[in-house]
Design brief:
This protein is mainly β. It is 0% helix and 53% strand.
Length: 118
């Protein structure tokens, strides 16, 4: 059973920084892409950033220049360093883990809340 567990969310003032983490365990496949998505109440889930196993990254325009995604392949862990946080960054942040291979699946964590008050 694959487990995807996020941590590190919380309340941070505008302009502040926060790092959230996500650890995946229990997979018998190679984990290809790991990423972060977010969803605010009443809105659709949206991409924040993704990173491939080789380190190629992709960012939403809202995240470029402020957020940095990184990963530790040995630990199947992905991080999101968020700087200069804004109230519009308030959301539940979800970790996504994509396996590769026959029978592989796409897994989601339960989410971690990030709140930036206005």
């Amino acid at each position: 059973q694959v487990q995807v567990v996020e941590s590190g969310g919380g309340l941070v003032r505008p302009g502040g920084s926060l790092r959230i983490s996500c650890a995946a365990s229990g997979s018998r496949f190679t984990i290809a892409t790991m990423g972060w998505y977010r969803q605010d109440s009443g809105k659709q889930r949206e991409l924040v950033a993704t990173i491939t196993r080789s380190g190629l990254t992709d960012y939403a325009d809202s995240a470029k220049g402020r957020f940095t995604i990184s990963r530790d392949n040995a630990k199947n862990t992905v991080y999101l360093q968020m700087n200069n946080l804004k109230p519009e960054d308030t959301a539940v942040y979800y970790c996504n883990v994509r396996e590769v291979g026959i029978g592989s699946k796409n897994h989601w964590g339960q989410g971690t809340q990030v709140t930036v008050p206005s």
